[in-house]
Amino acid sequence: MASLDDIRTAIAGETNQVAAVTSLLQQLSAALKDALAAEDPAAVQALVDQINTDANVLANAVAANTVPAPAPAPAPAPAPAA
Questions:
Q1: 14-23 per-position pLDDT tens digit
Q2: Where do the structural domains in the chain lie, given as residue ranges?
Q3: What SS3 class is residue 73?
Q4: pTM, to two decimals
């Protein structure tokens, strides 16, 4: 059974990860707004490419660290005919 300290450590790690993703999204949003305001198609495309790369990295990290759902219990065997 996990101790309270183990749970606190896990929550702190998750909080740091959420903060990092939030910061990344805010930075990408600001950069995209700047590129759109400058009407710079190459900069916009570079940001789209970066967003796609970051999204793939994030999706892979989530998949790698997600505990699979337990397999369903097998259905009970039918009762023998009387």
A1: 777 788 888 8
A2: 4-64
A3: coil
A4: 0.53
